[in-house]
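Batch manifest line 455
LIGAND: adenosine-5'-triphosphate
JOB: complex structure
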Amino acid sequence: MDNLVSLAKRRGFIFQGSEIYGGMPGIYDYGHYGTLLKDNIRAAWLKHMIQLRDDVYGLDSAIFMHPTTWVASGHVGNFDDPQIDCRNCKNRMRADHILESFGINADKAPIEVINAELDKLRAAKKLKCTNCGSSDLTPARKFSLMVKSNLGSPTDALTEENVVYLRPETCGGIYLQYKNTLDSLHPHLPFGIAQVGKAFRNEISARQFIFRTREFEQMELQYFLKKEDVEKTYEYWKNTRFEWYVAHGISRESLRFYKHEKLAHYASQAWDIEYNFKSLEGFKEVEGIHARGDWDLSQHSKFSGVDLSYFDEETKQRFIPHIVETSAGLNRLVLMFLDHAYTEDEVNGEKRVFLKLPFALAPVKAAIFPLLKNKPVLVAKAREIYEMLREKFMVEFDDNGNIGKRYRRQDEIGTPYCITVDFDTIEKDAGVTVRNRDTGVQERVKIEELVGRLK
Ligand code: ATP
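JOB STATUS: finished
ARTIFACT:
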């Protein structure tokens, strides 16, 4: 993790939020290469979800929604984590995570059950602060993850009647625009709505770099279908999503499914896709796939008074569709792809760090170098190639330092190809040297073939 964090900062991928004011826990900003990488992951997901399908539509709903949305969904009453504090160093911890480290699964357990388990550990003198080791810890209490604001309210007070929430997940917006999507695009079941957007959670302990943050982006699909189709469609989405990771370069061995045994009362299945993070030393959730029954649309129908049922022309029946959801964290996937790509090897006896990112996700696809900075004829030709390629790809021009240094810089940001213009380019063959990031192998390619080869 230390290596990743320092690379991410040094090379302009990810910065601590508000760093000059001392930083804010759980808040990060994305620099030039981080933005490009994140955009490429988002684009790959949207392509897979929308461009390559006939049955999924896009949406970009607002972060602020009618506050009743979150009462209907159960978030206002129930979206909380069990928190314990260290009285000695004021460290704040997730009680369920502490129990998990003792092999006790407290996922969704009531607070009384969690406290009973904690008491057993306390009696056995095993319960300690994860930061300072003190055993002077408070009992667990519920801590709401909802982030509040006072948008448009006549007073500053965040009282119940004034409060609006920053959405804790993006799917709320999909449920609220389900009817408009149906009425404007007239899809037949099964169909889905996909969206990528910000979500906010007042996470108790946000300490694992961008793995768990208080502001993040989710990529969510809500797939609406008939009840009788849920079982097979659930399997389909589980496998389709798993294969998306493999298709984007994540090795099969570093992925696995995790089945949730304790389910929300409306859910029939919940599995996570987990990735084996080197930086976090183990498998952790990157995406959740949930069969949510007809709970969401039923609740929003009930609370809004608007009929959200679907009329099936074939059977002439009216019913509330069921939902299969896939929900991935975009920032968490940035960490996963960086974690998987981070590689160290040795070139000519020197340590090299490089990011083995797949071409589609790499922030920069190729870098173009003149062999020598002080030879105008080389610089002009390299610039000409750079201008040609930038119309089609994100590319960089670099004439700073020796070629070896330029290679190292591009390796560190994961650029798959480096293209060098030398004297032969001008005098002999109109070719350039293309060097492969992963193998270091160089080959001669004609300038007019570059675009085709990169494609
Ligand atoms: P966790 O158990 O890790 O808190 P969750 O089960 O609450 O996650 P979901 O509500 O199912 O997560 O959200 C779906 C996805 O959104 C997660 O798989 C994860 O990738 C992402 N996600 C959730 N919370 C955060 C967060 N605080 N920071 C970054 N990504 C998050």
